[in-house]
Write a structure and sequence with these properties.
Largest sheet: 7 strands, parallel
CATH superfamily: NAD(P)-binding Rossmann-like Domain
């Protein structure tokens, strides 16, 4: 039997780390910021905020009001404004010069996770911005690791079976190298033709980013993390943390009808989702180990349950009459658009993948602030509490739209 990994084996690796964190006001970015600022001996965090610092603080006041003061009072966080789509990332040249001389690691969580966005915009938001950041980070003399968050959606063109932790070639057997140029900053992203073999344009854009980042002889160490859908937190910054719009499963449920629920209730497809704080801990442990290449962060690191398991728990938490009343309401036009994009009507035909997480398996033994799950965590109780919260949100949304 393998022994536990104590905190002192990894926390010391954060001493002296100066991290540039993008997407700091998002669900995952906020969780990473909390942990880097309050739980680890990180030297400094440059938190890149799009818009103004005031807007960022208002978002944190909404998403984690009880934790915001601890983050800012840590003395480790420097809030900087910028925009990855602008020249120089929209960062003040003086700050950019300091970053160049101080930053040791970059964590890029910026993403437009919309599945209804067209390909051209998704490429701009999910590929060109990543390449711009990578190009800048490549000039940092003290950089130790560049971490880019991708998605399991990049593999949506694969047949059923095992999905390995490696870069897969594009599904087009004869790709046009010129088309890939659309992924570079400033290029015309509309030049990339849509490939219907991907489930969504988002997956195609993210896959292009992976291929471009890994294509060249990497000037700096690079890690690509592919999480599954990200759900509410187990415990940190607090239990069930996670902005509603950043939780794909909640968006999906908004477009369900009763017949959809019945089909889900009999499905043996894996409910592929992991809590946001587990994803953050997985990322930070790989940062401590300076892992490179591709890693997955998916249900094998937490619990594997089917859609039928999820619905069975929902029926234990919510009465049949309440479920019926909620999902018999007419869906909005926006919900119907999501329904098409999520391919709800073809749920029975959905492909099943076995997502490999071998490179993170050791993390199940980690203890301390980066343990994947807190001691005594009950996944079933967490699911029940999460479903009850989801129900309240769905009811509120229904009342607000009526």
């Amino acid at each position: 039997m393998q022994s536990a990994v104590p905190p002192d084996e990894y926390t010391q690796n954060f001493k002296g780390q100066v991290v540039l964190l993008t997407g700091a006001t998002g669900s995952l970015g906020g969780c990473l910021l909390y942990k880097l600022a309050t739980q680890l001996p990180t030297k400094k965090v440059f938190a890149l905020c799009r818009g103004s610092v005031g807007e960022a603080i208002r978002k944190w006041e909404s998403s984690m009001p009880q934790q915001m003061d601890d983050i800012l009072d840590s003395g480790k966080v420097e809030l900087i404004t910028g925009d990855l789509s602008r020249p120089g990332l929209g960062i003040d040249p003086v700050i950019r010069y300091r970053m160049r001389n101080e930053v040791t690691s970059v964590i890029n969580t910026v993403a437009n996770i919309s599945l209804v966005e067209d390909l051209a915009k998704s490429v701009r938001d999910n590929c060109q911005t990543a390449m711009a950041l990578f190009q800048m980070a490549s000039e940092f003399p003290h950089i130790q690791l560049f971490i880019h968050f991708s998605s399991l959606a990049v593999n949506s063109f694969l047949p059923a079976g095992v999905v390995e932790e490696r870069l897969y070639p594009a599904p087009n057997p004869n790709p046009d190298p010129v088309e890939d140029l659309a992924g570079y900053p400033g290029a015309d992203s509309s030049k990339l033709p849509a490939d219907e073999r991907y489930a969504w344009p988002y997956g195609q854009a993210k896959h292009l980013a992976e291929r471009l980042l890994l294509r060249q002889p990497c000037p700096i160490p690079l890690l690509i993390i592919r999480p599954s859908a990200i759900g509410p937190a187990i415990a940190e910054p607090f239990a069930l943390y996670g902005p509603e719009k950043a939780i794909p499963m909640h968006t999906l449920l908004l477009c369900f009808s009763m017949s959809d629920l019945d089909r889900v209730g009999s499905s043996d497809h894996i409910f592929e989702e992991v809590p946001v704080d587990l994803v953050a801990n997985c990322c930070l442990l790989h940062l401590a180990n300076k892992t490179t290449g591709v890693v997955h962060c998916a249900s094998p690191l937490y619990v594997r349950q089917t859609a039928a398991d999820f619905m069975a728990t929902a029926k234990q938490c919510i009465s049949a009459s309440d479920i019926a009343a909620l999902f018999r309401k007419p869906r909005s036009s926006t919900a119907l658009m999501w329904q098409t994009k999520y391919k709800v009507e073809n749920m029975e035909e959905a492909i099943s993948w076995d997502v490999e997480c071998k490179r993170s398996e050791y993390q199940k033994l980690v203890t301390g602030p980066l343990a994947l799950c807190p001691v005594g965590h009950n996944p079933q109780l967490h699911l029940e509490q999460r479903i009850q919260r989801m129900y309240r949100v769905l009811v509120d949304n229904g009342e607000n739209s009526s």
